[in-house]
Write a structure and sequence with these properties.
Low-confidence stretches: 141-183
Strand order of the largest sheet: 2-1-3
Number of strands: 3
Helix content: 40-55%
Length: 183
C-alpha cells in the first residue's frame, strides 16, 4: 500500500508502507498511540493519523530531523493507493468468492470491482487484472466443445482396466487462482 502525499501546489510524493521497518513501525505506534494492526487497518480506511504517521516516518529517511509536529498535511493532501500485488490479491479473492455462486457472471464481478482502478497506484494494471480474472468461464469452455466425442469419452491410454493410481489429483483443472492468504 502506498501513501500519496500531494502538498498544495507541489508534486505527489509516494511512500510505500510495505517498506516500513519494524523499528519505524514501533516509532509510529508510539507517536500516534496505536498498535501496528490498527495502523495497518487504518491505512486501508484512509485514516488520517495512520497515513500521517507512516508518511512522516518514511519521509524522515530523507529528512532525519523532521519532527511529527512539523509534518501536518492538509486532510485532502493524503490518500492511500493499492500496489499491484494488493490489486491482484483483492481481485483474486473477490472472484473466488463470487464464483461460489454459479449465477454470478464475470460481468457482474467486474462491475463490483469497478472502483479499484481509482484506488490503485497503476489504474491500467488494475483494469487489466479485473478484465483477465473476471472473464466468464463459460466463454473459456467453448474451445473444449470442439473436441471429437470419442476423444472426450475414451479412457486414458496410461490407465488400463484394473490399473490403480495413487495420485491425489482429481484430473480436473481450475481456472481460478488459489485464494491468497493474508498475513
Amino acid at each position: 500500500m502506498y501513501i500519496v502525499y500531494t502538498p498544495a501546489g507541489g508534486e505527489p510524493e509516494h511512500y510505500n508502507a510495505r517498506s516500513l521497518l519494524v523499528s519505524e513501525a514501533s516509532i509510529v505506534e508510539r507517536t500516534i498511540d496505536r498498535k501496528w494492526p490498527a495502523i495497518k487497518e487504518g491505512l486501508s480506511e484512509d485514516d488520517l493519523d495512520a497515513m500521517r504517521g507512516v508518511a512522516w516516518i518514511l519521509k524522515k529517511r530523507s529528512n532525519p530531523t523532521l519532527r511529527f509536529g512539523e509534518f501536518d498535511p492538509g486532510i485532502e493532501e493524503l490518500a492511500t493507493r493499492l500496489d499491484k500485488d494488493e490489486i491482484e490479491n483483492y481481485v483474486a479473492e473477490a472472484v473466488a468468492i463470487a464464483r461460489m455462486n454459479p449465477d454470478v457472471t464475470g460481468e457482474q464481478i467486474a462491475g463490483a470491482l469497478q472502483h479499484l482502478p481509482g484506488v490503485s497506484m497503476d489504474p491500467a494494471h488494475a483494469e487489466a487484472v479485473i478484465k483477465e480474472m473476471t472473464e466468464d468461464p463459460k466463454d473459456e469452455a467453448a474451445p473444449e466443445a470442439t473436441e471429437p466425442a470419442d476423444a472426450a469419452t475414451s479412457p486414458s491410454p496410461a490407465l488400463q482396466s484394473g490399473d490403480t493410481t495413487t495420485s491425489d489429483s482429481s484430473g480436473t483443472s481450475s481456472t481460478l487462482a488459489p485464494a491468497p492468504s493474508t498475513p
